[in-house]
Design goal:
Blueprint (H helix, E strand, L loop, with lengths): L2 E5 L7 E6 L6 H11 L3 H12 L10 H19 L7 E3 L5 E3 L4 E8 L2 E8 L1 E8 L5 H6 L2 H6 L5 H14 L13 E5 L6 E5 L5 E9 L2 E8 L3
Length: about 220
């Protein structure tokens, strides 16, 4: 069973919607049912048809399609929550989703058993990972200064912060964690703030928090 719900977010202007499911279940059938029950099926189908002209979507009925569709459904739920109507989702040349003819930013993230869709003003990025993920290899990929931070901040949190910041720029990590160094960490407050330097020398603030066994990172900055 695919369960929809609003995901907590420490940034007031950003709404995140989630679809959770058990590993090993028929996520394709669950995705169909969840989208129909939420009144999202027609909109997601329109997104698929529009993007399929470029051959840039997974085949209908595949597990990859289910995650793709749930991500678009989650964004549509979040868009409704912030008062947006007639939402049309498109994809940038870099592959980032965006709402056509809108100043609102969107971001989609998925990991084992969970899909998130976020909507907020300006540029936003969201990433999520299971809190119990094995990070042995990940730690070796961190910069020396970042490995020192793992005394007070988990390696998962550092990775999620980098991914969320990269998504907010619309570029993505580009296959390199090192290109997005963590340059500042503020651990006070409910959600620690991690500063990640982008290729454009902008420091992007990412809020990190744990919920339901997952670590989530949310990045936000004004659209210049």
């Amino acid at each position: 069973m695919v369960v929809p719900s609003q995901w907590p977010c420490p940034i007031d202007d950003i709404v995140i919607w989630s679809f959770a499911f058990d590993d090993g279940e028929d996520v394709v059938e669950g995705a169909h049912e969840a989208l129909i029950d939420g009144g999202l099926a027609d909109g997601v189908t329109e997104d698929w048809q529009q993007l399929s002209e470029s051959g840039d979507v997974p085949p209908t009925g595949s597990p990859r399609w289910a995650e793709w569709a749930l991500g678009r459904g989650a964004v549509r739920q979040a868009a409704t929550a912030v008062g947006l109507t007639d939402v049309r989702l498109e994809r940038s040349p870099e592959g980032a989703p965006f709402i056509a003819d809108s100043a609102w930013g969107v971001s989609i993230a998925h990991t084992s058993g969970l899909v998130l869709g976020a909507v907020g003003p300006g540029r936003i990025g969201v990433d999520v990972e299971r809190a119990d993920r094995d990070v042995t290899r990940l730690v070796r990929a961190l910069l020396p200064s970042e490995r020192e931070l793992t005394v007070s901040l988990s390696a998962i949190s550092i990775m999620v912060a980098k991914e969320a910041a990269a998504k907010a720029t619309g570029q993505g990590l580009g296959g390199s964690l090192a290109r997005w160094p963590v340059v500042d960490v503020e651990l006070s407050g409910i959600a620690p703030c991690v500063g990640v330097a982008s290729a454009a020398a902008r420091v992007i603030d990412v809020r990190i928090y744990e919920h339901s066994g997952y670590v989530t990172g949310v990045a936000s900055y004004p659209d210049d």
